[in-house]
Each structure stands twice: as C-alpha cells, then as structure tokens.
Amino acid sequence: MKIFLSIIVPLYNEETCIKKLIDKLTAVGEKFDFNYEIILVDDGSTDRTWQLIEQHKQFIPQLRGIKFRRNYGQTCAMVAGFDHANGEVIVTLDGDLQNDPADIPLLLDKMREGYDIVSGWRKYRKDHFSRVLPSRIANGIISRTTGVQLHDYGCSLKAYKADCVRSINAYGEMHRFFPALASMTGARVTEIPVNHYPREFGVSKYGFDRIFKVFSDIFAMNLIIRFSSTPLLGFSLCAVPFILATCFFGCIAVLAELNQWISGKSLFFFFATALNAIAAIHLLGNGVIAELIVGNSDLSHTKMPEITKKEIKVAPHEK
Amino acid sequence: MKNKHANNIRYSIIVLLEEDNDGFADYICSLDKIFSDAEGSYEIIIIANGKEAALRQELPEIRIQGKLKAFSLNKKAPQAVCLSSGFKESCGEIIMVCGSYQQLTHNAIKHLLTFLDKETDIISPWRQNRVDSKFSQLQSKVFNMMTQKIANTDLKDLSCIVKIFRRRVLEETELYGNMYRFLPVIAAKKGFKTKEVPCEHYQERGKQGLYSPTEYFGRIVDIFTLFFHTRFVKKPLRFFSILGSIFIFLGSSALVYAFFQKLFFDYPIGGRPVLLMALLCVVFGIQLASTGLLGEIIAFTHGRARKEYNIDKII
Known about the structure:
- The structure holds 2 protein chains of 2 kinds.
- Chain A is an alpha/beta fold.
- Chain A has helices at about 20-30, 50-55, 75-85, 105-110, 130-145, 160-165, 180-185, 210-225, 230-260, 265-295; strands at about 5-10, 35-40, 65-70, 90, 115-120, 160, 190-195.
- Chain A is built from 10 helices and 7 strands.
- In chain A, helix 5 runs parallel beside helix 8, helix 8 crosses helix 9 (about 230-260) and helix 9 (about 230-260) runs antiparallel to helix 10.
- In chain B, helix 5 (about 135-150) packs parallel to helix 8 (about 215-230) and helix 9 (about 235-265) runs antiparallel to helix 10 (about 275-300).
- Chain B is of the alpha/beta class.
- Chain B contains 10 helices and 8 strands.
- A 7-stranded mixed β-sheet of chain B has the order 3-2-1-4-6-5-7, sandwiched between helices.
- In chain B, strand 2 (about 40-50), helix 2 (about 50-60) and strand 3 (about 70-75) form a beta-alpha-beta unit.
- The longest helix of chain B has 30 residues, at about 235-265.
- Strand 3 (about 65-70) of chain A pairs antiparallel with strand 8 of chain B.
C-alpha cells in the first residue's frame, strides 16, 4: 500500500478546531483515488490537543501524530512532518482553519502540469499595512536573490514533491521560504489563488529583525548549494579581490620605499598590504579546511543539496 | 544500558569521586541508608576519576552487599566523560548524581525525591540558604547570575553537583567537556520538564576560596560554550554574521567617511589612522563571516542527523 500524499498540519493549542479540521481533511480525502496520510504535529501544546489526536487516531487509520517535547515553532513542526512523511507529494497547511482543505485537489492538479512546488496565494487577503510592509520588503529581497516570484510567501498551504523538501536544511522561520530555497536546487515553483479565512484569534508576528535572519539563512543556503562540493573554489573566489589588493598595495609600498616618499605614506601602504594579505590567507586557509570537512564527511556527493531532476521520456526507436 | 530489563532497578546513584574525602565510606553508607528507606530497588555506582588509590583504600570499609559497583577511570577525564561512563553501567530508571562528598542533607535528598512526579524529568537542588563562606557564596552567585543572563534561564543554582533526573534525559542529551553542570539548562531547552527545589545543604569541602585564574577563565568559557551550544549549534552563520556585519558596517562607513573627506574637502587621509582602522574592521568582518560559513558547512555536512526538534511521542 503505497502512500501518495502526506498532509502535514502543525498544531499549537488548537483543541477548539481540531475536530473540524480532521473532519474537513477526511472529507477531502474520501474523494482521492490514491492512499494518503494525515500527519498532525503537536508543537508542544499546553491544552488537550494531543489527547484529541490520540482519540481521533483510533477511528481514522490515515491519521498519524507527532508530539514535540516543547514548542519549537511552525518550521520545526513542518520539518518533523517532512522527516516522517511517506508520501511522494507533501501538502502543508495551517492548523487554525485559515486554509481550506478543499483547495488541496486544486494544488495537486496544478502540480500535474509539471511543477515541483505549488504555493497557495491568499489573493483576497485583507491585512493591516504595518503587517504587509515588512513582509513586502522581505518578499522583494527574496525574489531578487532567488529569482522566485511569488505573491504570498506566508501562506502555509503549499504542495511539494517530497524530493524537493528533503534537501532543504531548514530552521528558524524558514518555512515561508521553502519554495525559494527549493528553487535554488532547481525546483519549478508556481502559485494558485486559494481560499483564506480570517484568523479568529492570535496575531502572526513578522518584523524587520527576521528579515536579517532570513537573509543570512538564504545567503548561507545559496552558498552551500553552489559551493558545498567545491568549497575551496568559493573561498578562493572571495579571496581574489584581497589578493589583487595585496599586489596593488604591495607594489606601491615597494615603489614608495625605493623612491623614499614621505615615510608616513609608505607605512600606510605597508599596512594596507599586510591587512589584505591577512584577509586573503585567512580565506584561503578556511577554504582548505572547508574542503577537508566536506571531503571527510560521510555524505556522498549525491546526498549534498540535491538538484531536482525530472525524467525525460525516451521515445522508442522506430524501425 | 546493560541488563536494562534484567533486574528492575529504580534508582541508580552515580557517585563521582574526584576529590579526596576521608569520610567517603561513611558517605556512601549514608546514601545507602537513604535509599534503603525509599521505595524501589537501587544501586550505587562509584566512578573514581583519577583517584583510584583513594577508592581502593576506602572500598573495604563500605559494607554494602550486592548493590555497589565501583569503577576507576584509568586517566583523569572531564566530568561529562566520567558521568557517561557511569551512566553506561547504570540500569536504573532514575539517576541521581553525587559528588565526592555529601553536599545535601539526608532530609534534603528525601525531599528532592518526593518532587519527582510523572511530569518532571529533572530535579535540580537550589541551596537557598547557603552556609558557605561569604566569599564562595559571592563567587557562586556571580557565576549563576552570568549563566542566567547569558543562557536565558531562571535556574538559580547550578553549582551543586547533585542532580536527579530520568534516564531518558541523559539518553537524549549530548554532554561533553564541562557541560554536566548545565545539564538542567540544556535539558530544559530540549523540552524536558525541570524543577528547582529549595533545600538544605552542608558546607562545601574540597578546594575553596580563591580558585586559580585558569579556573575562572574556564568557567567563563563554559558559559559561552553553553550559550553557543543551545542557540547556534545548528545555525552558526547567524552568530557570526551578526558580529561580522557589525564590523563590516563600521569599517565601510569609516571608509566612506574618509573618502568623502578626501574627495570633497581634500583632507589628506593617507597618514591618518582612520583608513587603517576602517580596513582592519572590514578584514575582521570578512574573517568572522568566513568562519561562520565554515561553521555552516560543518553543521550541514556533519549535523544532518541532529534534529532541531525533540519528539516526545509518535503514533
């Protein structure tokens, strides 16, 4: 019994709507002509969420539950879901019924057109300006750096091919940017408008400080994908400007010394040479160490950030 | 984990013998007495850390049948190593770790054990009314304050060696070096339920008063290790990029300032320190950032099996 679809729902103190959620999910699931599973991840809830999951588990065989020791945040909950999912396709959605499970078939239809990731787009979302602005800025930066154009990164309702998410090294607040991260490995990303219901209680936080964190994560991810199999190359490229500067300042320092220019200035050029040389040597040294780390790791290169691939049908030879 | 199910032992008392103690035999016997009153069976495991001679000398005087195991490490090892070698020999569901001499009163230990209900994973004693000298109280207070601030925890007394915890805590927590001290903090970050219980204690023995400078320095490094370990082990670049970007920002703004002066006001900048300082800052920034990248590569290639979340149950 091969499972095709895994639906992952992170839950944090959702005892009020968990029943409705499961009902809606199973109602959608009945229409599927393939096997599916629902993975409910209890993100350290302090209410009866877990007991309710255990209760429902007895009647619904497709249901699976993961319970965290404490609250780790939505990203961790989703990553735990990815780690335990058996399906070829993974769908994530919010536990607070802001997303409509009835949209899942639409995502899957779109995926059949040849996409690896289909993101939901809350087209008719009305939010306060103060929440939209930072998210706009972050979206802008991420679109520029990754080349993925999405209207709505924040929407939890997304469908992924399982291969695409397994290679993502995610933490912190990164679940918003799974499509952007995955696109760096070659995944084809698109979006479709989905239903969105207003949040009944609680506020989602999204501030400027997170932009910095996300930016540093994207930077790291980008470099790792590009250079994890040839780290010395990456570090050497960074070192090139410093090597050039060392040569440049070094020549001037020698000239200044030979022509006996004013001593203050020649000292400056000497120090500038020294500083640039230090930076260059440090970078090259780090590059070599990085090469050692990668070379000694027990991951084979195929396990390195995986570039997503698609099968191209080979037409049979006509004779 | 030997004989884990062979004999249903409830308590394993691991005694780390690291300092000379004349009354060691009496101390072990008194521990034995406490637990013979308690419910459930128990075992006492003594690990001598570089004190084999002392252990051999005291051992004949400890008259406990069947419940005692004694080991000696062939070489003096960090506390975490010592503990984990003791842990490997233990099979109790609840582990209590003790130091070389009696730190807590009998009643205090009994009191602590009553707090270990189903929900609690670790109990850390809080020596609320310290009877030690003012100076060592002050030292301890400063240390604990620093830990509280840096590691963002509300545990008030980490200097006491005695800790009681469930087996699964140590099974799921990697300890190394001098991190045993911080076990309640690390475990609490992993989602284990920690309780700090006020209790009575005896005066500290062994080395007292002013420690050597190396030891103070070591403590500070330990706290920093804890800080890094609990927050950035999976995402080292975040730590380094914050530091690095501060330096790069300072350096590049100083550079812009200097060139601005040169271009528009024709100030000489070649002989002034501002230019060198600016360059130095940029170089520092780049070094930090590249160290962070190195860290990220290590975390990526070697830390994939290590998850950021801890799972309690799967159904």
